[in-house]
Amino acid sequence: xxxxxxxxxxxxxxxxxxxxxxxxxxKRVNSSVSAIQYGIFSKPSMEHIGNIKFHDIxxxxxxxFVGFLxxxxxxxxxxxxxxxxxxxxxxxxxxxQIVRFYLSVERQHLQAIxxxxxxxxxxxxxxxxxxxxxxxxxxxQL
Length: 142
What we know:
alpha+beta; globular; Aminopeptidase; six-stranded mixed sheet
């Protein structure tokens, strides 16, 4: 999915990854004890339309970061991100007692900010995880 013009806020779209690099990345995530990634598929065709990843899972603090992308434009702006997040977050809460979710977002990515606040994320006072002035962190506490 190399398309930086269509997805200017998604850093991974700026590089053209080979299939073997993508497979290696998925294997790395799947073998990690501090990350879980799910593919998002449409029904009934089972077409891959996006991903959601929970990473930097901190079992002591009962927290993690989340990142997701609905890449297929036909499924954007339909509330799907909230449905997917709520379903997956419930699983993390039940299996690992994770109750606090963080995500970093580009300040200019207003569409994503609206989607995340609809789900229930709120700006965090501390800039946890922010790496620049162009991003800030949102948090959701279950």
